[in-house]
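hi! just following up on the protien thing from before. the input was this:
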Amino acid sequence: MVPFNKPYIVGKELFYIAHAVFAGRISGDGIYTKKCSEWFETNLPCKKALLTHSCTAALEMAAILCDIQHGDEVIMPSYTFVSTANAFVLRGGVPVFVDIRPDTLNIDETLIEAAITPKTRAIVCVHYAGVPCEMDTIMDIARKHNLSVIEDAAQGFLSYYKGKALGTIGDMGTFSFHETKNVISGEGGAIILNKPQFIERAEIIREKGTNRSRFFRGEVDKYTWVDLGSSYLPGEIIAAFLYAQLEEAEKINAKRKKTCTQYYEALAPLAEKGFISLPYRETQENVGNGHMFYVIAKSPEDRNGLIAHLKTNDIWAIFHYIPLHSSPAGIRFGRTGSNMSVTEKISDMIVRLPLYYEISDSEIAKVINDIFTFYK
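and the predicted 3d structure came back as:
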């Protein structure tokens, strides 16, 4: 069987976990949490990085930092995971969904300005499959209308837009280290803060609304409840596993990008004959991370048939998001800010292929051969 995803150990994960336990602290903000934050701040780089227990937590922190109030509107794509919208709905915000581009499957930057109203407070750009959004245009629009920009870079860790790491361009960025991502820790995430004025409040929000971080730095003689917040810290075992993966992050991404190239080159003949479309490929300015490989079928019937055919042959391929604007909660809490034709078409026809660090050449060949068999 070829699974869709498989977690893996690439370096010192188990050693660091044992070390964290014997060091006597496995709750949040221990030595490995700090090592991870320092890694981000040095290697991305960014002004401040705070580890969280998920990208969902990081997005919820971002919504609080943006001071989203009841009725405030937040522009975002509909073709994304529910956490992108949920984080803002929890603060009383209204997601305003706009369509995606047919090439990158990212938010269509040409549709954003028309969706802005006097209630708009922020833009959330989702870097789908680790491919960068058109950040220059998005940042120009945000500056013109005095809006915050949050990069949902859950899939975009160590992808780059014009030499800048995703997550470091907007006001803040968020990452996921869920086991389906490139660099993993089972669950886990991070919020990247690119403006100094967010840092102190972010520490408070992350520590249940207390100034506990300042207390441990000796800046106050006791800590107390001072603001909104929740328990957004990961445990130290998560951080220890993650730090070992960060040490090998470039190797992990290189292996995934190689797999994507193998898929792309082998399936190109089917694309040339019009049976499928293939993903956007990176350029010198837009450098991806090999997070995902998908094909787009000609019709929903073809998509469903291909998934069923691969499953019959012990290959686990999947479709992706159900568009949020058409979901029960999306209809209840949000609204559309544009025609959604590309989103609706893509969501009906996309197939994600197996892709993980330890996938073998023989497994890749099996997937490719069975796709060709289907189209015969």
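The radius of gyration is 21 Å.
The mean pLDDT is 97.
cheers
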